[in-house]
Amino acid sequence: MAVSNNITACITLLALICAVPVIASGIWFASAQGEECARLARWPVAILGGLLLLAALAGFVGAYWNRRRLLAFYLCAMAVLIVLLIVLLVWAFAVTRGSGGYAVVGRNYDDYRLDGFSMWLRGYVSDDPDRWEKIKACLAGSNTCKKLAQERAFTNADRFFQSHLSPLQSGCCKPPSVCGFGYVSPTVWTNPSHPAADPDCGLWSNDPARLCYECESCKAGLLEALRDQWHKVNIALIVATISLVFLYLVGCSAYKNAQAASLFRHYKW
Questions:
Q1: 4-37 in b/e burial notation, b at 16+ Cβ within 10 A?
Q2: Interaxial angle between packed helices 119-126 and 129-141, expressed in degrees from 0 to 180 and rounded to the nearest 10
Q3: Helix-strand-coil percent breakdown of the chain, rounded to 5?
Q4: What gap in Å lies between CA 204 and CA 215, rounded to an integer?
Q5: Would you state the pLDDT for residue 166?
Q6: Pairing relationship of beta strands 110-112 and 101-103 according to DSSP bridges
């Protein structure tokens, strides 16, 4: 192989490696269902990662065996896929901007409401009742609130108020703090002092199968958990995007040099 082809082969191999974290993030995002019982945009990340891998593989084969058409396909396909990756990142940041969490005096955890989230996220849990019914059934059957109820460290209200709760635990397993319920246990509360302070106050139930799963705060807690998921995925996507853009620019330069060298040899002979 010519020097330029060697460089291009190395670059496409690195691009192939860069596609791996995108695929890994996509597979985790699409298949690993945790306590959130939901996934936003389950498959686009995995599909995009797979396409990046195929394009990089085609580029490597084209560079290693000097197949110019494969190299040209690699450059065109990678340009399109990088643009799609950037679009996905912009969409993710736009959709997950803002948070519904707010601090409560005397509490070490946040409470949650829907107002702080983007319209798209609010629509995800509010526009389709059937979707929320499925999520709610999953949450009720999960260990999210069961583990909290069995926690022996919360022997009194002060210990509970100073604990660190996940967004789902805060939103779904207890009533909103503004209601002024009296603490009995993490999932048992009585005698609200401000029952009209929030519509969720009337939706709270000490029944383990109901708790606050119908509450807006539960939907908000779910969205906060999904935001955390996307922020983790975004880190891998940002690193992969920056690396792929750099490798693509270097690859274009190496490809042009290879073309120029080939043309020079043609006229030389």
A1: bbebbbbbbbbbbebbebbbebbebbbeeeebbb
A2: 80
A3: 65, 5, 30
A4: 7
A5: 93
A6: antiparallel
Answer positive or negative: Cα dihedral of 253, 257, 258, 263: positive
Q: Which residues of 247-269 are buried (b: 16+ CB within 10 A; e: fewer)?
A: bbebbeebbebbeeeeeeeeeee
47 SS3 class: helix
pTM: 0.85
Which whole-number Å values give the CA distances from 58 to 7, 9, 62, 72, 250, in the listed order? 15, 10, 6, 10, 17
Measure the CA–CA gap between 62 and 60, rounded to whole angstroms. Answer: 5
Q: What angle do CA 233, 45, 170 make, to 5 degrees?
A: 45
> What pLDDT digit, counting tens, does each position of 102-133 carry?
999 999 999 999 999 999 999 988 888 898 99
Encode pLDDT of 143-161 as tens digits: 899 999 998 889 899 999 9
CB distance 236 to 131 below 8 Å: no
User: pLDDT averaged over the chain?
Assistant: 86
Is the sign of the CA dihedral 235, 238, 243, 248 positive or negative? Answer: positive
Q: Which residues of the chain have pLDDT under 70?
A: 1-5, 30-36, 39-42, 254-255, 257-269
Q: Count CB-CB contacts under 10 A for residue 168.
A: 23
Can you tell me which residue has the tokens 């736009």? 94
Distance CA 207, CA 17 (A): 50
